[in-house]
Amino acid sequence: MKNKIVATFWFVLLVIAGVEALHFLPVLNVGGKPLRKVDLLADIRKDEVVEIEVADSDTVVLPVVKPLFVDTCKEGMTCIEDYADSTEGGGMKAFYEALLNQDKLNRPLRIAYFGDSFIEADILTGDLRAMLQQRFGGCGVGYVPITSKVYGFRPTVRHSFSGWESHATTDSLHFDRSLQDISNHYFKAHPGASVTLSGQKKYASRLDTCSVSTFYFLSVDSVYLTAQINNGKKVAYALAGDSSLQAVSVRDKIGSVKWTVDKSTPSSVFYGVTMDSFDGIVLDNFSTRGSSGQQLAQIPLKILKQYNRLRTYDLIVLQYGLNVAFERGVNYTYYKNGMIPVINRLKAAFPQASILVIGVGDREYKTENGDLRTMPGVKNLIRYQQALAAETHVAFWNLYEAMGGEGSIVEMVESNPPMANYDYTHINFRGGKHIAKILFDTLMYGMEQYEKRKTYEAE
Questions:
Q1: CATH 2.60.120.1360 intervals, the chain
Q2: What is the rounded distance in angstroms from the CA atom of residue 121 to the CA atom of residue 427?
Q3: Which InterPro entries does the protein's record reference (predicted)?
């Protein structure tokens, strides 16, 4: 037999050389995602120094924006940047004043927290609400749209419903923008349609009972409703038609409440039910999956003003960006310009409210070498969100920086137990509690600094 050792050696050498040559091929993409490079010598090759992309390319220059006032931050804290002066609305002053003078409000201090899937099912907001209610009082989950796609996953309220025709801004067909409420929904009732909210004890201590439940609707014709508290006696309401938003409330120690539409007309639209307190803190979660936030500009100003009359807010939070940022995004001027009308509309509808823009959090992508890195597009978007706050004279909080910056979502995914999902984008409820604590501490520090500054200026 022939000795094939030499031939085998040359064959193996050629295979190794061929595979190593694949390392030098251009980056291949499938579905917009780079395939990981072949690298047989990865374990012994000296690591290349990877330069993290800066906030913007040289072709896009944003002006340096500085807040009108910056608190001296504690080490390790990312403070809120306020771009409103003391004579105009929109900055944090109104919210801090409301916190410090709750006893003079004669109503609960209300927060409207708008966002995308990052806060869906009350992630983050549920814990922020609990912390604020523990500190300042209050109870209940706040405003809940009549139906919800995530009702079974939301741990802060037990929510059931039947007999409704649901319409949302995310619908591709048959959505009448002129009818939508503050949550970008409206609902039509079939005879006997009902919605039930029940408090729960497991997630937070102040959610099992509340003091008042309110039902919001719009009908130019008469509406007949029934409210049932704690599965007890039913109370009937006959309400005359009105061209403006209406609200009817029941008051008691409410563990559960069921609202039923006994009679209405096809033109009647229904919006939401609340579990609230008479004082303390109320925080409403308004999450819309896949949203950029720009859909808020489509809510009729008249409807928003009517909500302000019936449900006055002291702080409006806008937390968007997951559905805007993309891997190599550089210029987000179109997004900033699209959000300016949103903030101006909210200012017009809720002139007494502080407005806080929260920047997008950390989000990862895989490089051609398979390494996880923060998307450069995320860092770019944050600068535009900061510029948005500066141009509209409201407040801004850099969530990405507060989370820990580069790679912080990876640390949350790899923590034990995990605080974020393996899409390296979305947090879970443990992560929500972690970030809620950071935001709560930041808000409390801002309030304390505001009070000190106010006292100093009065001397």
A1: 139-279
A2: 12
A3: SGNH_hydro_sf (IPR036514)
Q: What is the DSSP letter of 308?
A: H
Cα separation values, 442 from 71, 168, 354, 448, Å: 11, 33, 15, 10
Give the residue range(s) of CATH 3.40.50.1110 domains in the chain.
56-116+291-459
Closest CA to 359 of 27, 108, 55: 55
Q: Which CATH class is domain 56-116+291-459?
A: alpha beta
Secondary structure of residue 210 in the 3-state scheme:
strand
Q: For the residues of 45-110, what is the DSSP string, one character each?
A: SPPPPPPPP-SS-TT--PPP---SB---PPTT--PPEE---TTSSBSTHHHHHHHHTGGGTSS-EE
Are residues 144 and 453 in contact, defined by beta-carbon separation less than 8 angstroms?
Answer: no
Q: How far apart are CA 273 and CA 211, in angstroms?
A: 13
Please list the rounded mean pLDDT of every run of 10 residues in the chain (459 residues): 67 70 56 50 45 41 56 86 83 96 95 97 98 97 96 95 97 92 98 97 93 98 97 96 97 98 96 98 96 97 98 98 91 97 98 97 87 92 96 97 96 96 95 98 96 81
Instruction: Of 259, 291, 261, give the one whose Cα is nearest residue 273.
Output: 259
**CATH number of the 139-279 domain:** 2.60.120.1360
Q: How many separate helices (H) and strands (E) can be counted in the chain?
A: 9, 19
Q: What Cα–Cα distance (Å) separates residue 43 from each residue in 23, 34, 47, 51, 234? A: 14, 21, 9, 21, 72
